[in-house]
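REQUEST FORM: STRUCTURE PREDICTION
Request ID: SP-0412
Submitted by: Lab K.M.
Chain count: 1
Length (residues): 269
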Amino acid sequence: MNSILNENKALANEIAKIAEVAGYLWQNGWAERNGGNITVNVTHLADDKLRSLPAISDPLPIGTTLPELKGCFFYCKGTGKRMRDLAREPMQNGSIIRILDDCASYVIIADSPVMPTSELPSHLTVHNHLIAKGSPYKATVHTHPIELVAMSHNREMLGKDVLTNLLWSLIPETKAFCPLGLGIIPYTLPGSVELAKATLSQLDDYDVVLWEKHGVFAQGLDVMDAFDQIDVLSKSAKIYQSARAMGFEPEGMTQGQMAEMSRAFNLPK
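STATUS: Completed
RESULT:
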C-alpha cells in the first residue's frame, strides 16, 4: 500500500471499500472491459498530509464550473481502466484529485497521474448538486447490470415507475432497501452533457436511474450503499426473468401488500 494511505487509515479504509465494490461489479458481469465508473467525495477524510500534497499533473479543465466543489477531494476511477484491476490495485487504476479555487479545473495529487474517467464532469456535476442541497451522499457509481439493461429494451417497461413497481413487487427487500425506486432516462449519447443533465433531473426523486440500453447510475452514502441499491434491483430483475424463463408471468405482491410494507417500515411512497 502506498504511503499516503499508510498515513491515513480512514482514507485507506474508504479506498479498500471502493476496491471491494469494483470487484463485485466485475464478478457480477456488470463491468466488461473498462465499463463503469466510481467517483467518491473523500473531502471529509482529507488530513493535513493529503491537503498539502503537491499537484502531480497540470491543471485540467472539468468542462463546467461547479462552485460547491471548491477545494474538494475525490477518488476517481481512471479512464480506460478496468474494474477487475481496480479491485486489486485501486491507486494504480484510479487517482485522488483536488478541485481548484476556480471551481472549473482540478489537479491530480495521488498517487500517480492516472487520468480520471472521461465521465468525470457528469459525476462531479452530481456531487456539486448533492453538496448544494445538503445531501449526505458521498458516492456515485455507474455500471451495466445485465438484467436491468435487458429490461430497458422493452418499451412497455420504460413508463414512469412501471419498472419501479414491478421490481418492488417481486421481493419485499427491494422496496425496503431501494425505497425511492428506479428512475428512467430515455436513450441519450453516453458521456454527453445531455445525459448528465437528464440524470441530474432524476436524482432528487430517485437514488438509482436506469439509462435506457446502457446501464445504471446510483448515488449513496458511500460506495457500498450505492452498490447495494443496484444489487437489490438487479436481484428483482433476475427473479422476474427466471419466472419468465419457467414459462409464466410472476404474480408479484399487490399494491395493497406493498403499501402495507411502506407503512410498517416507514418507507417513502
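NOTES: The first strand starts at residue 37 and ends at 41.
Reviewed by: T.R.
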